[in-house]
Amino acid sequence: MTIALITGANKGIGFEIVRQLGAGGATVLLGARDAARGKAAAAALPDVDVHVVQLDVTSAASIAAAAAWIEATHGRLDVLVNNAGIAVDREYRPSTVPLDTLRATYETNVFGVVAVTNGMLPLLRRSPAGRIVNLSSGLGSLTMTSQPDPPWGDLNHLAYMSSKTALNALTVQYANELRGTPILVNAADPGYCATDMNGGQGFQSAADGARIAVRLATLPAGGPSGSFESACRTIVRASATSAPSSGPSAAGSSGSTTKVACRLRRRSSSSAALRAIPNSHARSSPRRRSNVRRRR
Ligand SMILES: NC(=O)c1ccc[n+]([C@@H]2O[C@H](COP(=O)([O-])OP(=O)(O)OC[C@H]3O[C@@H](n4cnc5c(N)ncnc54)[C@H](OP(=O)(O)O)[C@@H]3O)[C@@H](O)[C@H]2O)c1
């Protein structure tokens, strides 16, 4: 029986990851910083073996208590999905973002991931096939966001975007440290999903976004580690000498040629409309998304 912990799982993409992993037969630990919200969410999943774990990723005491409970109850952890995240700087540009906003974003999106991962690693090391999945974003990809043209060039939310870039970097660092162990560590970009984070503006459902995380959480032995996989299909890293493949690229990076081909439905096509979306997950138009080639 797989034991899986998902942080920030009382709603949105995290909740759908719980549902999908549970449907696959896992025992799912639904992390919620507010236990009452967690219980309400778990009550909506009568067919899932789900247990609520109070877990605020910014609280060392909360993380330690959750790890102690998991150890006492299950003895190990097979899957950790670092899903909890915030996006609170949508109204700012880099030149105007308050440092407190930057710090708060990093506390959850970066330091919280490190704290939870390190708190759970002793339990993950007891698993025969540990998996860590970090919920990233295309907005953390330097390849995508360094495109100067709109809409990518207009998306300039320093706190959220750089926090996801840092998340991609630490994904690689953990993967490198854990190479040679059964633990695989990968980053997943769920695509632009309609959740509370963006006022329901996403192009696809939270369930759609959950799939990529669930796939990385259930990778077979020998699967990739240190990769960045995007639901904004397909980021392909290609060297100058090899043909593009559909495999994952190193977390958030690109090779000499990167081809981005998204198959997401769109709600808005103009960069002005994308700027009007009330958060930082706006995506490029399908025309741009298909076959964007960038040379470095
Ligand atoms: N939606 C998208 O289009 C999109 C695109 C790319 C990446 N992502 C990433 O996907 C992940 C999930 O996003 P979402 O769209 O599902 O957002 P969401 O609906 O706003 O859900 C965020 C979840 O994180 C929890 N959370 C926030 N701070 C926390 C903390 N300190 N400790 C524990 N839990 C905390 C929230 O709990 P409360 O209910 O208590 O606030 C909530 O359960 C995030 O990492 C986000 O950056 C989302």
Strand segment count: 11
Low-confidence stretches: 234-250, 253-296
CATH homologous superfamily label: NAD(P)-binding Rossmann-like Domain
Classify the fold: give the CATH topology.
Rossmann fold
In terms of topology, how is this protein built?
Layout: E1 3-6, H1 12-23, E2 27-32, H2 35-43, E3 50-54, H3 60-73, E4 79-82, H4 99-124, E5 131-135, H5 142-145, H6 158-178, E6 184-189, H7 206-217, E7 227-230, E8 235-238, E9 249-250, E10 257-260, H8 271-276, H9 286-289, E11 292-295
Parallel strand pairs: 1-2, 1-4, 2-3, 4-5, 5-6, 6-7
Antiparallel strand pairs: 7-9, 8-10, 10-11
Helix pairs in contact: 1-7, 3-4, 4-6
The structure holds NADP nicotinamide-adenine-dinucleotide phosphate.
Structure description:
The termini are far apart. Helix 3 packs parallel to helix 4 and helix 4 runs parallel beside helix 6. The protein is built from nine helices and eleven strands. The strands form two sheets. It has an eight-stranded mixed β-sheet with strand order 3-2-1-4-5-6-7-9, with helices on both faces. It is of the alpha/beta class and 296 residues long. The structure holds NADP nicotinamide-adenine-dinucleotide phosphate.
Task: Report a brief summary of the structure.
The chain has helices at 12-23, 35-43, 60-73, 99-124, 142-145, 158-178, 206-217, 271-276, 286-289, and strands spanning 3-6, 27-32, 50-54, 79-82, 131-135, 184-189, 227-230, 235-238, 249-250, 257-260, 292-295.
